[in-house]
Write a structure and sequence with these properties.
With about 525 residues, this protein is of the alpha+beta class. The protein folds into two domains: about 260 residues, PmbA/TldD superfamily (PmbA/TldD fold); about 260 residues, no CATH class. The strands form five sheets. Strands 1, 2, 3, 4, 5, 6 and 7 form a seven-stranded mixed β-sheet that branches. The longest helix is centred in the N-terminal third of the chain and has 18 residues. It is globular. The chain starts with a helix and ends with a helix.
């Protein structure tokens, strides 16, 4: 047995190397087992139809049934040690009913006809009980009925790749870091498969098979003369693809740059505070878009329905179609259709077909994120498919779709943008951040910072953060690079709701320049 196989085998018996197995069977693989009839399409449809029929008999004007099988696999390594392996799978179903304009919801991990009938009855009882405290009737905008199947267009199923191959890949990444001079390197790989069956009283029957994958590394370089250390994370983005992403991405190229920049940070100049132009790389800009454009334009936040988890939003409904959110270069769009994005799918958890729409057009705020329920609050005639539940036991809520900055129309490369900047900072990678409970005042850092003087990058900087408010910041943008520079970033687990839910979401952009932004020196701020 070679060294790595020994480590894999022995780690399973160590604390920190966790393997968990589902108590339920995988619905996707059920056709291969002896209980094929239990989970075939006809059986699932029979249970869904019965639940919907019972809901109607119990007084529901609308009902839906959602069956979900969720698989995830996570691997964590540091140098040549496996720190943890978690292999999880569970499934269950939920019934949602609308009775006299009031929601009722119930769910179970036991999937059979009698349990579906019981859960439907519970949902009806909850709706009737909720009527006592309901202030406004729930009204759903119309949606066509769909019978459809949608699948993330992956080339290689991550769950078909052996643990041994995945661990060996992570070890190779860690080994390369050490070869390049890093003192430490940790890496991870996280794959998710989410299968959903949706049926509604309006006649929809929708199956979806969703895949996404996330992998990355962190390198640390120690200066032995001072004992200080510097780190840099990988710049790869989580993505809506299969294992082919692991095989396609330039891991070693990213690693070489990461180790080089971690070394450079030891000698980098501490930034001078003041107003400077900043050029934000897509590896950084995705997070600024997420926090200051994505969350503020969630309609439930704007209406005050979402408040406990990270606050509401300054984007109240009186600003729709009126607020100059940014300069004429700012064109933000949302969708669940963009190729390779984390939130991309065929339908949302209301059974609404996904689409694309403008959020900010030539600087003007023109569109919220909505669900079938939320759309009525602004007089919209249809939902833009933002309902999502991260688990069969959770009620679908309004969640952020992929939200991105459109590239500039004129030919403009990153190098062109740098050459046209006299006094600025180029910021790469996402770092720490903070934003207030109205999504207005914020502060961001990054992974690497480069000084720009007279159109050239001169040296690396350190201790850099920029701050501002959402409207002034986006209005200060005077240039966005063209589509040749467009890249995706995103979050595997954006949090929201009470109880909390997580949702995957991508944000694309090209590099963009923002004029006269307030720069802080984090080293000086920390010592105050």
């Amino acid at each position: 047995m070679d060294r790595r196989k020994f480590l894999i085998t022995s780690s399973l018996a160590l604390p920190g190397a966790l393997i968990t197995k589902s108590l339920g069977r995988n619905i996707l693989e059920s056709t291969k087992g002896p209980n094929y009839k239990m989970f075939d399409d006809d059986y699932i449809k029979k249970i869904a139809d019965n639940a919907i029929s019972l809901a109607k008999q119990g007084g529901a004007s609308y009902s839906d049934f959602r069956l979900t099988n969720f698989k995830s696999q996570r691997l964590f390594t540091r140098e040549n040690i496996i720190q943890g392996i978690a292999d999880n799978e569970d499934y269950g179903f939920a019934v949602r009913v609308l009775v006299d304009g009031v929601w009722g919801f119930a769910a179970s991990s036991t999937f059979n006809e009698s349990e579906a009938a019981r859960v439907t009855a519970v949902a009806l009882d909850i709706a009737k009980a909720n009527k006592k405290i309901q202030k406004r009737r729930v009204e759903l905008v119309p949606v066509p009925a769909y019978t459809d199947t949608w699948k993330t267009p992956i080339k290689k199923d991550p769950f078909s790749v052996s643990i041994d191959d995945k661990v060996n890949f992570l070890f190779k990444v860690n080994d390369r870091a050490k070869e390049l001079g890093a003192n430490f390197c940790s890496s991870f790989l996280w794959a998710v498969n989410e299968w959903k069956y949706f049926a509604s009283s309006e006649g929809s029957y929708i199956k979806q098979d969703l895949h996404r994958i996330n992998s990355g590394f962190d390198v640390t370089v120690i200066d032995k003369s001072t004992g200080k250390f510097e780190s840099r994370s990988g710049l790869q983005a989580p993505i809506g693809k299969g294992y082919e992403y692991i095989e396609e991405y330039d891991w070693f190229g990213d690693m070489e740059k990461a180790v080089e920049e971690a070394k450079m940070k030891h000698k980098a100049k501490s930034v001078e505070e003041g107003k400077k132009d900043i050029i934000l790389d897509p590896t950084h800009l995705w997070l600024t878009i997420h926090e200051s454009c994505g969350h503020p334009t969630e309609l439930d936040r704007a209406l005050g329905f979402e408040a406990n988890y990270a606050g509401t939003s300054f984007m109240t409904t009186d600003k729709l179609g009126k607020l100059k959110y940014g300069s004429e270069h700012i064109n933000i769009f949302s969708d669940r259709t963009q190729k390779d994005c984390l939130a991309t799918r065929g339908y949302d958890d209301d059974g609404v077909k996904t689409t694309e729409w403008d959020v900010i057009k030539e600087g003007v705020f023109v569109g919220y994120q909505t669900t079938r329920e939320m759309a009525n609050y602004i007089g919209a005639k249809e939902s833009n498919a933002c309902a999502y539940a991260d688990n069969w036991g959770h009620f679908p809520i309004q969640r952020m779709p992929n939200t991105s900055l459109r590239p500039g129309k004129k030919k403009l490369s990153l190098q062109d943008l740098i050459s046209d900047t006299e006094d600025g900072i180029y910021i790469i990678g996402d770092g720490s951040w903070s934003i207030d409970m109205q999504r207005y005042n914020f502060q961001f850092t990054g992974q690497a910072f480069y000084e720009i003087k007279n159109g050239k990058i001169t040296q690396m900087l350190r201790d850099v953060a920029y701050q501002g408010n959402t409207v002034d910041f986006w209005n200060s943008c005077d240039a966005v690079c063209d589509e040749s520079e467009y890249k995706l970033g995103g979050s595997f687990f954006c949090g929201k709701g009470e109880p909390g839910q997580v949702s995957p979401v991508s944000h694309g952009s090209s590099p963009a320049r923002f004029r006269k932004v307030n720069i802080l020196n984090t080293g000086k701020e920390a010592s105050k």
